[in-house]
Design a protein that fits this description.
Length: 220
């Protein structure tokens, strides 16, 4: 029997993507799932959906802050209490670079994403999204040679096209915000789920054992 499959579409600049990423990586509920991580550009996803950015909606930023802290603390996610200075930050460069890593060094993608999320959302350093900062992380995580290759390739239209294709793929599967989880259960049925507060439904669709993680009790 095939394992349940989850594709997480994410953007480093999305706090709820960080929470979703952490839960998939650390909760025993998902230990038997095959999980793929796909970088997208949240800005472009909003544009495709004609979706107003959350901070442009009156009162929504305050709601996002409360929800971010609630779910982050509920699932033990390393997360800053204060909104990081400079949020929201442009993430097109860092997301494009992650597309390149996913293509050339897929075995390194998860560890690099984990590092970036920690710097952006636990250390509250939004400047990690700028090339001069994230290339320094690449050197530590990937080595000098691989980092130079990424630097030389980052500005090509092919890499930006991959980011746009990933974003289109998320949109085509039904996404209108992040995190977006595209799921396939053991029967081959497919369904998409949006947001941390739908993880209970996601687990039910994939027939996962939520009793393995007490943090899920609030979702049931």
């Amino acid at each position: 029997m095939a394992s349940p499959r989850i594709t997480l579409y994410f953007d480093i600049g999305s706090p709820f993507s960080q929470i979703g990423f952490h839960i998939l990586r650390n909760s025993p509920v998902f230990s038997k799932c095959q999980i793929d991580y796909v970088p997208v550009l949240l800005r472009d996803l909003f544009q495709k959906c004609n979706n107003t950015p959350p901070i442009a909606v009156k009162n929504k930023l305050q709601w996002i802050q409360r929800e971010r802290l609630y779910w982050g603390h509920r699932f033990g996610v390393p997360i800053t209490d204060a909104v990081p200075e400079g949020f929201p930050a442009s993430t097109i460069d860092i997301q494009t670079a992650l597309c390149l890593i996913a293509k050339e060094l897929p075995e390194k993608l998860v560890s690099v994403v984990e590092k970036f999320y920690h710097i952006f959302w636990a250390e509250a350093d939004t400047k990690i999204a700028t090339p001069e900062r994230f290339f320094a992380v690449f050197e530590n995580e990937l080595g000098e040679e691989a980092t130079k290759k990424i630097q030389n390739t980052l500005t090509t239209s092919d890499m930006k096209a991959i980011l746009l294709e990933n974003t289109q793929r998320a949109f085509d599967s039904g996404a209108f915000g992040l995190p977006w989880f595209e799921c396939v259960n053991t029967d081959g049925d497919q369904e998409g789920f949006w947001g941390i507060d739908h993880l209970g439904r996601l687990a039910d669709f994939l027939q996962l054992d939520t009793s393995l993680d007490q943090s899920f009790r609030v979702l049931l």
